[in-house]
Each structure stands twice: as C-alpha cells, then as structure tokens.
Amino acid sequence: MDEDIPALAVEALTKRHGSGAAAVDALLGVDLTLARGTFTAVMGPSGSGKSTFLACVAGLEQPTSGRVVLEGADVTQWDEARRTRMRRDRIGFVFQDFSLVPYLTATENVALPARLAGRRADPQAVRQALARVGLADRAGHLPGALSGGQQQRVAIARALVTRPALLLADEPTGALDSTTAREVLSLLRAAVDELGQTTVMVTHDPVAASCADTVVFLVDGKIAGRMAAPTADAVAAQLAHLDQLTGAAR
C-alpha cells in the first residue's frame, strides 16, 4: 500500500434523514482527510453529526451524497455484504458500552472477528493483543468477572487484533471513572505511536480529546474548526465558544 494514500478521505459528505418538511440534515458537506498513523478526535454539541459521521465512515449508514474513501478505495456505493466484510476485516470498533459477548471469555471475544469471518483466529495474535492491553492474566475470564476498565481493554484488544486500516472509537471513556479513562486513553495513544494505528475518536471529554493529534469540531453537520496539538484547557475553551467557529477546516 502506497504510504502517501490517506487512511481515510471523506469528500463533500452529506446525510439527510427523512424527506420533505420533516427532513433533517445531519451532515452538510464534510471534507476530511486523515493520514496514516494519526489520532483524530471529533467533538461537537449533541446533534452536530458526530455519530452520523462515524456511521457513514463505517458503512453503517449510506451517505446521501459525497464519498468515503478507505485506503484509496471508494467504499461509498458498496453493497451491504461488501460493507460488512469491510467492517469485519478493515475497521476496528471501540464503544462506550464495551459490546462484549457476555458468555465468551476475554480470549474468545478477541478472537470473535476471525470466527465471524469463518477463519480460525491466530492464537498468538490473540495472546499478544491481550498482553498489549495488560490482560494476559485475565484471558480466561468472562466479561462479568472483569471491571469496566478491563472490559474496555478487551474491546481495544479485539479492535486491534486484525490490525485494521481504521479504528473508530465512540465515547470509549464515557462509562469509566477518570483514572480508568486515562489508562484506556493511554492504550489508544500507544496503538497510534507504536503500531501506527489510524484512530478516530468521538468524545465529549476535553481530557480525552487532548490525547489526539488533532481535534475536529462539528457544528450543525459542518466542520467548524480544527485544533492541532490540543490541550484539555484549549479544547474546553473552544467548546465554550463553538458559535464563534466559522468556515471549514482544510
């Protein structure tokens, strides 16, 4: 793969829900290009289009117009079967609610993407993924026997085990206390720095956003600003004045 090809390019992306007078425009011409091995936080008020953006990038929703290009491949018009394979093989997911299968052990949850693809999981890769998140000694535990932070670590290991083109994290620290949240954010940061993992994280938390390389602010379905090398204080200050953000980030 040509290293100059972006991990993700979103071009003039729009998404309209409904029709006629009841139509709601969730995205209005979003343009965003992410280089490989970068960590981007997406922030904005409720209803700004953050979740819709993630859903369109992941192929969970079909954009009304525009393009989603993953590692040089335009995936916008792929059919559902092909998008399902893309999500399974090329995109890792980390959710606020962990989304682990309760009757599977940590090892079995991490191995699940391969099983769903009809393949035998590589035991060494699974062990390494759990060791990377500090859970080698909890491999045989069910989610119910793990703390919230440990469950999120299993989810991160599952997301990374396939070495996806893109990791999408949706409020990954939203259900965690501040200390555990910092540990989870450190793991996401390490995946970028040590594995070159391209990561996009939706968050409301300025502290979480400060772990990213860049913060992109969405307002009313549009990119309203961008902040490089963010700090928690700078992000919090910007969130307090979102109405002053104008123009699209380039």
Automatic annotation (TrEMBL):
GO molecular function annotation: ATP binding
Matching CDD domains: ABC_MJ0796_LolCDE_FtsE
Gene3D superfamilies reported in the protein's UniProt record: P-loop containing nucleotide triphosphate hydrolases (3.40.50.300)
Superkingdom field: Bacteria
UniProt entry keywords in alphabetical sequence: ATP-binding, Nucleotide-binding, Transport
Residue stretches in coiled coil: none
PROSITE patterns named in the record: ABC_TRANSPORTER_1, ABC_TRANSPORTER_2
The ABC transporter domain, residue ranges: 8-245
Keyword field contains DNA damage: no
PANTHER family to which the protein is assigned, alphabetical: ABC TRANSPORTER RELATED, IMPORT ATP-BINDING PROTEIN
Name recorded for this polypeptide: ABC transporter ATP-binding protein
Organism the protein comes from: Catellatospora aurea
Lineage: Bacteria, Bacillati, Actinomycetota, Actinomycetes, Micromonosporales
